[in-house]
Amino acid sequence: MTLDELKAKCAHCTKCPLCEGRTNVVFGMGKKDADIMLIGEGPGENEDLQGMPFVGRSGQLLDKFLAAVDLSRDKNVYIANMVKCRPPKNRDPKPEEQDMCLEWLREQFKIIRPKIIVCVGRISAQKLIGPDFRVTKEHGNFIEKNGVLMMGTFHPAAILRNPNNKEAAFGDWLALRDKIQELEIRI
Ligand code: URA
Ligand code: SF4
After folding, report:
1. How many secondary structure helices (H) and strands (E) does the chain include?
2. Of ligand 1's atoms, which has the minimum distance to the CA of residue 81?
3. How close is the Cα of 160 to the center of ligand 1, in Å?
4. Which of 78, 100, 117, 118 has its CA 20 to 30 A from that of 148?
5. How far, CA to CA in Å, does 115 sit from each of 17, 112, 136, 168?
6. What is the enclosing helix (H) or strand (E) of 123?
7. pTM for the structure as a whole
8. Sequence-separated (6 or more) residues with CB below 8 Å from residue 173
9. Which tens digit of pLDDT belongs to each residue from 151-178?
């Protein structure tokens, strides 16, 4: 199956209750065989309306970080979320919603085959890296899981709430750039 075929299937998903409140399924976007994949939390209002991930204020900040290290969703990165439908009032996605939606994400991983996965924020880091992951303590650390390097960093929404974390977050994106160079990944 291609990524476009998977996206078309996912567009009709009713596996979890989040389907009820959505305008659009936000499947993901970016380079179809990217070496770098970013996983956020879930669509917010703008994302739900436009059907694309990280297109609001958080997304603008994320795109700035990416651009600073020569990455972009147009060129060399794929961006998706833990859940593909917007949780009501932007609440955290429930564990069972994440578990249902993870099947779609796994299919995306299988097709895209990224070398590095960046978990953007606590929700995806705790689901994909480890349940005890603490962003404030473990951000920017790379660990290998099933042959893929994983790193967790601050969610841009958390940085907008608390700009004190901006420098530390930027350090994580610089660490990603260094890791790409170290591994001689051609982006
Ligand atoms: N926050 C997320 O985690 N994902 C988005 O797509 C937008 C905001
Ligand atoms: Fe399906 Fe995921 Fe949307 Fe739930 S959040 S309905 S599992 S696509």
Report:
1. 8, 6
2. 4
3. 13
4. 100
5. 32, 9, 24, 23
6. helix 122-128
7. 0.98
8. 65, 66, 68, 69, 71, 153
9. 999 999 999 999 999 999 999 999 999 9
Q: Which residues pair with 79 in a beta bridge?
A: 29, 38
Distance separating alpha carbons of residues 112 and 170, to the nearest angstrom: 26
Q: How many CB atoms lie within 10 A of CB 182?
A: 9
Residue ID of nearest Cα to ligand 1 atom 7 = 54
- What amino acid is encoded at 27 in this protein? F
Distances (CA, A) of 60 to 9, 45, 107, 172, 174: 28, 14, 27, 17, 18
Give the mean model confidence (pLDDT) for residues 57-84: 98
φ and ψ at 59, to 5 degrees?
-65, -35
Which residue of 18, 48, 55, 58 sits with most ligand 1 atoms within 8 Å of its CB, as the best mutation to test the pocket? 58
For ligand 1, what atom is nearest to the CA of residue 82?
3
Question: Token pair for residue 41?
Answer: 């939390």
